[in-house]
From TrEMBL, chains A, B, C, D:
PROSITE patterns: GLYCOSYL_HYDROL_F4. Binds 1 NAD(+) per subunit. Its cofactor is NAD(+). Belongs to the glycosyl hydrolase 4 family. This is 6-phospho-beta-glucosidase. It comes from the Bacteria. It comes from Heyndrickxia acidicola.
């Protein structure tokens, strides 16, 4: 890599509406990261979008005056060949599948959401075989490349690569931690760059063990502010309602927005059902937003990321990805929160499991900062979700119907074997086209019969 | 102890309706355990019952022709002085408190039960200061004695002694494991004595990792039988509904009846509410049973344990206690499931925590058999309940309102900080008389205001 | 196994001089362990001895009036077929190899001994491939049988099976712990059966964490007695010289005789060299003893174990083996110290490694009693020997010359890469005939050149 | 600290010959670290040297044109008051004590050296009570200050603070890691700043798990180079002789110079004895060097660090200290190897123990980078030295003669209880004036009698 003049990046799911943000990130950091070729890959169903967004990408680089070749292809292997970095932002089954992930659980009174509960499970079941397939191609075509995954559920996907392949150059990425930092910056009215959080936990279940401004801990003040019900959580599309002061004070750690699902479970289920009735599920909302975005993207005069994209959610995601790639490429040594193998960084989470943790980013990849113990109060939930993820990974790889039921039963959002089975049966049927591993043998079919 | 001719045992809560079973146990094992003095201790409110049950105990020993002195006293220190064993079966606040533990959560749609959820928490908060007080007396008056606790929540109480005192001669005891063995024996139609289970987990959350008949594993067959919805769980007062075959097969471990609360949560909540409406809560039912029992006990012609006691629930409890005491006294080396310090017996539960595990029983106390890892699927829930117990213990010892709210928020049966606070406030008020540690300072009162 | 009327046992290395003790053990425990067939297996070089000892065995059973068939064979697979237990007591390269293990290191000023240092390493390198071969046969021919290994170095051999095969029905056995118990019994002048020690450590590096008479700890008294230089160590052929009182008091654990090598290293090396000069090495002494024994065994009138065998060393070994087999067969549940997988029984030794630990013996094999932490002072040495064993196992399996040098360098008895290499080169050459794995490829040969 | 204009630093042992290097470091980094006051503290015996070196320091700052106040004092508390950083470089008993640490063991054929074996032990016993006393003062007088210790044995001293005080703002510092980096840089002929090593282990027993140039691993090449006997170890005063290629290849980690003591033990003992005979021990050599240095320092025209200081050994030490202080002060986030609490950074070393590990340096102190497992071959030795350190710390704090004997017995350089006791008795007597904790009570005296 060091001898090469320019960098080759392959983006799987390149036809995504997020791509312009990614491109903007590449433009912004071009001086540090001399991108030579950007390969946008997609599946045949996504060809039209790929072309729209690919053309916009070309216009953006051109307007920026940068000599970046944009390649559009349906041939993944061609894109992977000799890549330096591979980013994954694909969605198996597209937004229609997400809509089902959200709708079906709600019918059973269970939270419908794309990264937690039944929705997260089934998104994982559809995604994991594909990611493992990509990894297999990478081992052959670009073994030295880094895989930067921001396909959700990012924690489960990273776990799957770590436990079910020998490939180790993988990083899972999420915008939740950066969102927490920005939320705290806003709360304290300081610049984002001055805020640093000690992140430790799992993807979408990350805690802030300490928080610093200019390197000095301000945790006590932040916890005090968070005890004031007026100060609510931070990520746009999962708004919290403020914690009870006693709870947050004695938990004594920062939470992320997704913690609402577990520490305000009945309230969140109720709210999600109401919202779905009023506005449709998030997938349905996003679908409308996406249609609008692609209309904009088609405009041949557009050569920047349109501001409307920010409403889409997932802000900073692509920017975080480019920041990460740049730090790896330049061996920068800055601290970023990513999903990587634990190796003891967080006590009481298995050594080999994926965790979301503050890491020093080097050319050799992310190196977790040792966080030690997380609060006693947080250990059980984190283990429970990790167990859920591990069994979900096994289910995905083995095509085991029994394990899907087990995974969902032990998920705190379901907590019932009977209910789990009902939901699993309905969702397996709904996603049949994207879950071939569960429909191979008569035996499985019989077991479900 | 070895030089003494006879054994002195002090039973705190001696006026309990269970005492005749305990006495029956002492009579049955008299040849191995030469009981000299049985001191039944109770609080002033329990004086009448103490006398009724104490007189029955005297008649029972007399009829058996055994020279056992029965002492009835309200002076605990007198009873503890030079005791060889101390058993605890008291109930702070009596059955009225239990009725509140069961009723109040139900109003909020949360399971009301005396060892799980809010009920278990508040029973713990009332009991822990008393048990720590007993332990302090024991350190002074009978430091070589063993404390055999079967006051619920037995796991949390054992945790409190292990974490908040220096006393180590404590064993927590429960009838759930023995009930599981008897259930399996019945299922397989073999004698109980031929069945052995590898128990590992927490009190009221214990798993059977393997099961043997005559030392040969029959786990596969048992799991198969349990996959048949016809074969339901085993402990009398917490009847299960049979597991989904996929769930139990992939969990691949035996469950106890209390697992229904976590793996059939919505169903169990619904059922408990219905039962409470129809028959009253368990405390209310038990109260009627107890009244009948004490009427029987008064009969001066009664000199045996009346068969009606078995309906009371908690069968085998006292028998298990005498079996345990006898094995300690005789250094027997048989295997019994008890609550004791983990020390690595169960991987992924903290070293210093109380676990329920198969132990070899020696004069030096229970020695856990190394169980290694429990199934991945079980690890999270076990950690979550252990975290709940640990924070509850701290709350009880410190009188920390914040920690009570935290403990209940992270309990899977509540999973909401808002709901937790509401229930805590109502229960603190209801149990005020037995929770002095929470009503000491203005600051706490204000915090709750 | 339960349906079979009688038990079939195969003894690899059946021509050993120990066999009469084994036979005596079978006779003594016949009521509990209904032995039907005893297959004594040996290699062609051992045929003569096999016949001598086999004939004696037949006479012994006959005299005892027991219907046990004794089979003598050079065909291991025939012996293994449907066996219930397999015992291994073979010696690759016979006593000549042992003599080299003892002699060569002494030339370099390093302890020469058959289970520690260079001698233990090379005995392991010769033995491990054979034991793994036996295990492979067992998986095919008697997968339900238990392998009871008492071939030294028993800890390393058990480690090899646990780490380099999938076979789990293996137990390593040693007479050191039983010797310690008998030594303590003698020291305290009580019967052996009343003494119990909490054993924890590695084979030939086992500590007694506590010691009980009739279940009551007498550790303080024993440590006090051991602080008296008059009271020395216990195993016959490795006599200690008494510990410095300060050392044993602050170590606060019982040691075994082999600890002398590590806690009296210079003295032991000196003594071993002197003894070798005066009396010859142990192998040379044993060889003379064995010749005498076989002369006795030939006597057609001899039908009991001759008392002279006890001088041979390794007393109780075979008796311990039969005791273990009987407890497994009858699911007895008594406590015996054996080598088995740690699984957390001893904190700070790897989960998957072989440890020597007090176990409850069941039909399902040995179940370690949880010992928790060993003394801080002992942790390093135990880890160091375990690391030595693990690397030795890898060297044996891979035929890696580099790893042999590494293993010996980190062994505390050598502690020099240069010295290690010199000794390794000489010993590899000396044992060439029994170390084919190191003489396969040109590359290895070149590396050594 | 943030509001203060300038930084106050107190240097305990300020009269050391190293101080000019420290001053040079402060001058070099003045732009980043605005030093206002430097307090040089020493004991009455060191008053003369303190004044000589203090005057030189003043001249150096003056020549550099920097407004730094230099205070010379024998009153430690005055110096500590409101300090921002405290550095410790004192030597209890001065070089005379070191000479004894080196000489006495040699008489018994044991390595004499000031940080390993008996010498390291006794230096620790003398130093630990003083450092704990300093820490007590700091808790009162400057609780927010960081203690940067480079008094040897730095690992043991850090362990003592972590285990025997509640003070956590402590960092142990050593020049060995930086020396390894510079050695590798020289070996590869690249600039030092391009080399980064993953350090993991203990002080004076640190391994390099990987090594990078510009972020790219060059470990294989380095190991290959180190297998060439021509390429020897790197720290000036402990020259190695090159590793056997087999050893270093299969260890597969970089070693430090002090590893020679454990992996070339007989050779190093021999060489140390020879050198002591020829040139005197290191203390004796250093004493001559120091005398020369102080003659130079007295020269009122000298206003720079004289180049002769580099011969003194301990090069980069003070520079490393200033680099560390600067990174803490500026929250720099660069990577430096220091001694700090493990917290899981290195698997298989206790959580609470001091380790030497690559850390990210923040205003909140060093944050270890998670290293995971160290090579199997290294685990035992590391544990053994850590156990030695822990028991030495307890001995120092408790004044326990028994534990001194235990610590030395388990040290691999001694490995004999008898020899340990002999050496301990002689060294206790020799250092009596500086070991008051061992000469308090009759009981201890009697025990030694």
């Amino acid at each position: 890599m060091t001898e090469k003049k320019t960098v080759k990046i392959a983006t799987i799911g390149g036809g995504s509406s997020y791509t312009p943000e990614l491109v903007e990130g590449f433009i912004k950091r071009y001086q540090e990261l001399p991108l030579g070729e950007l390969w946008l890959v997609d599946v045949p169903e996504g060809k039209e979008k790929l072309e729209i967004v690919g053309d916009l990408a070309k216009r953006m680089f051109e307007k920026a005056g940068l000599p970046v070749e944009v390649h559009l292809t349906l041939n993944r292997r061609e894109a992977l060949k000799d890549a330096d970095f591979v980013t994954t932002q694909f969605r198996v089954g597209l937004l229609d599948a997400r809509a089902k992930d959200e709708r079906i659980p709600l019918k059973h009174g269970v939270l419908g959401q794309e990264t937690n509960g039944p929705g997260g499970l089934f998104k994982g079941l559809r995604t994991i075989p594909v990611i493992l397939d990509i990894v297999k191609d990478m081992e052959e075509l670009c073994p030295e490349a880094w895989l930067v995954n921001f396909t959700n559920p990012a924690g489960m996907v990273t776990e799957a690569v770590l436990r079910h392949s020998d490939f180790r150059r993988v990083v899972g990425l999420c915008n939740v931690p950066i969102g927490m930092e920005m939320g705290i910056a806003k709360l304290l009215d300081v610049e984002h760059s001055r805020v640093r959080i000690d992140f430790a936990g799992l993807n979408h279940m990350v805690y802030g063990l300490d928080v610093y401004v200019d390197g000095v801990s301000v945790k006590d003040r932040v916890i005090e502010l968070l005890s004031d019900p007026a100060n609510t959580s931070f990520v746009k599309n999962v708004q919290g309602q403020g914690w009870e002061p006693e709870f947050i004070r004695s938990l004594n750690a920062l939470t992320c927005a997704y913690h609402n699902y577990y520490y305000k479970m009945p309230e969140m289920v109720k709210k999600t059902i109401e919202t779905a009735e009023k506005e449709g599920t998030r997938a349905e909302v996003v679908k409308r937003l996406e249609d609008e975005l692609f209309e904009l993207y088609k405009d041949p005069n557009l050569a920047i990321k349109p501001p409307q994209l920010e409403k889409r959610g997932g802000a900073y995601y692509s920017d975080a990805a480019v920041r990460l790639i740049t730090s790896i490429y330049t061996d920068k040594g800055d601290i970023q929160p990513v999903n990587t193998m634990n190796k003891g960084a967080i006590a009481s989470i298995p050594y080999e499991s994926a965790v979301e943790v503050s890491c020093v980013i080097t050319k050799d990849g992310p190196r977790p900062i040792t966080m030690g113990d997380i609060p006693v109060a947080a250990r059980g939930l984190v283990q429970q979700i990790k167990s859920f993820e591990r069994i979900a990974c096994e289910a995905a790889v083995e095509g085991s119907y029994d394990k899907v039921v087990l995974a969902l039963t032990i998920n705190p959002l379901v907590a019932s074997d009977k209910l789990a089975k009902k939901i699993v049966d309905e969702m397996l049927e709904a996603h049949k086209a994207y879950l071939p591993q569960f429909f191979k043998t008569k035996k499985v079919a019989a077991a479900k019969g």
